[in-house]
Amino acid sequence: MRHCLITGGSSGIGFALARLLLAQGNNVSLVARDWQKLQAAKHNLALQADDAQRIHIASADVADEASLRDAFTACEEAFGPVETVIASAGIVTPQLFAEQDAAQFNRQVAVNLIGVANTVRLALPAMRAARGGCVLIIASGAALVSIPGYSAYCASKAALRSFATSLRLENKGDGIEVCSCFPPDTVTPQLMEELNLRPVEARRFIGQHEPWSADLVAKRILSGMTKGRSEIHFGLVLSVLAFCEPILRPLVHFAYFRRAPKKARDS
Ligand SMILES: NC(=O)c1ccc[n+]([C@@H]2O[C@H](COP(=O)([O-])OP(=O)(O)OC[C@H]3O[C@@H](n4cnc5c(N)ncnc54)[C@H](OP(=O)(O)O)[C@@H]3O)[C@@H](O)[C@H]2O)c1
């Protein structure tokens, strides 16, 4: 039985991971901002697992290191040191860079990148002391290809790939596994909100795809972690992009410019 702490565990992919980890017999801590959503998530998980004792909830904003530290302390008091940390909390506000105000841009970077760094920083000391542990970072397929209307999101998620690689190199000797994953569009509350804001340029670029279910994404992630994968990719297109990115990325962008009218917004 391990202590698994999941930021963003009250919803979407984080919630689906919590359900699977509970079913495997682990203790699970959920960290997110909204207390009512956390309580509802705990209630739902407890019904499914038939056990509320193995679920702890704590409210914090991952971008605020002090509040996150308090949440970690509370979770560790409940279940002991964190052995698996999953950084799933993330936000997206799609908008063309020229139209997005600085606060919205900066907030995405603060939550998606700094929030993950804050999370890992709090989990690492205990893992290093125990000479073992697992760090899972939820990035996005948007880390692999730059999408118009997603400058802050793509930049913050692409940075996570690099961050995870540095972490892996730094911590391998201490028996700490670092894994990053790059989900495609997945049916979650975040996607439902995001689709309403997705600019026409982004819709043209991304095209029509059937989104994955959060359960399927979570299953793929846990199976990849069990196999010791350092990166987990989803579907043929994103997997090929991940490995052949330097060649394929310019081709994807060339195809976009061929298809898109010069002033996509005017059309
Ligand atoms: N859905 C997709 O299509 C998709 C695709 C690729 C990658 N992803 C990534 O997967 C991760 C999970 O996304 P999701 O789709 O599952 O989203 P979701 O259903 O909206 O869940 C997001 C979770 O993060 C929490 N959260 C958001 N901001 C936070 C903050 N500042 N501090 C602490 N917790 C915070 C939310 O709770 P509170 O609001 O209560 O804080 C919620 O629990 C994100 O990193 C996202 O970028 C999603």
Give a quick summary of the entry:
This protein is of the alpha/beta class and about 270 residues long. It has helices at about 10-25, 35-50, 65-80, 100-130, 150-170, 190-195, 200-205, 215-225, 235-260, and strands spanning about 5, 25-30, 55-60, 85, 135-140, 175-180, 185, 210-215, 230.
What are the SSEs and their pairings?
Layout: E1 3-7, H1 12-23, E2 27-32, H2 35-49, E3 55-59, H3 65-79, E4 84-87, H4 102-130, E5 133-138, H5 151-171, E6 176-181, E7 186-187, H6 189-197, H7 200-206, E8 212-213, H8 214-226, E9 231-232, H9 235-259
Parallel strand pairs: 1-2, 1-4, 2-3, 4-5, 5-6, 6-9, 7-8
Helix pairs in contact: 1-2, 1-8, 3-4, 4-5
The protein binds NADP nicotinamide-adenine-dinucleotide phosphate.
NADP nicotinamide-adenine-dinucleotide phosphate (NAP) binds at residues 7-8, 10-14, 32-34, 37, 61-63, 88-92, 111, 115, 138, 140-141, 183, 185-186, 188-191.
Overview of the structural elements:
- With 267 residues, the protein is of the alpha/beta class.
- The chain has one domain (3-266): NAD(P)-binding Rossmann-like Domain (Rossmann fold, 3-Layer(aba) Sandwich), CATH 3.40.50.
- It is 55% helix and 14% strand.
- Helix 1 crosses helix 8 (214-226) and helix 4 packs parallel to helix 5.
- The longest helix is centred in the middle third of the chain and has 29 residues, at 102-130.
- It is globular, with a radius of gyration of 18 Å.
- Bound molecules: NADP nicotinamide-adenine-dinucleotide phosphate.
Question: How would you describe this structure in keywords?
Answer:
single chain; 267 residues; alpha/beta; Rossmann fold; seven-stranded parallel β-sheet; two-stranded parallel sheet; 9 helices; globular; binds NADP nicotinamide-adenine-dinucleotide phosphate
